[in-house]
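Work Package 3 (structural annotation) set out to generate three-dimensional models for the target panel prioritized at the project kickoff. During this period the team completed the workflow that converts sequence records into discrete structure tokens, so that structures can be stored uniformly alongside our sequence database. As a representative example, we reproduce one entry of 225 residues exactly as it appears in the project archive.
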Amino acid sequence: MDDLVRRSLTRTAVFVVILLLLLLLPAGSLRFWQGWMYWAVFSASVVAITLYFLRHDPALIARRLNGGPTAEKQPVQRQILWFTSAFFVLLFVFPGFDHRFAWSRVPAHLVIAANVLVVAGFAIVFLTFKANSYTAAIIDVAPEQLLVSTGPYGVVRHPMYAGSLVMLLATPIALGSWWGLLPALCLVACIVWRIVAEEEFLVRHLPGYAEYRQRVRYRLVPGIW
């Protein structure tokens, strides 16, 4: 347990420092107030969720530490995650350059509203983690894993991605950049690609998933897809 706490908190600390650098270095200024606000909101959300589950569900944290493209067992998922990682970096870098060169301008009230949506996206992810302790960072099914169809899983089949979708689309606006929506939309395409491939895997390996798809019609956005 002590080792898990050390590894998870170290990884979280490294991530929030890298995030700050990705935001500020392209901006070329410490006066990028949108970047500072977003960084505070994003980092506080990540730290709060990490601390909560270290206390209440350390097994989930352990599963989520083993992620990234190289950890995926399926070649298609490795490919998806390489694209996702690249666009995820651009999601933070683009707005910094936008700030430096004044490509676009987002009103302050929309920046604040978008930060609220970022928190809402994290809240959906948090509820998903609470509902399903087997929400790993890679596509896999544990031997003892059972199908979860309650809570957020009763609304859409992939609530974690739904929360991520809210967060990702709000991020460029929270950072004061309309141009930042370009990598965000590319990330949405990666999420859709990942979901389609993931469902093919789950139908084959998770008992009851085919029937679950019949009960819960929508994958990501209720009433749309």
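The first helix runs from residue 2 to 27.
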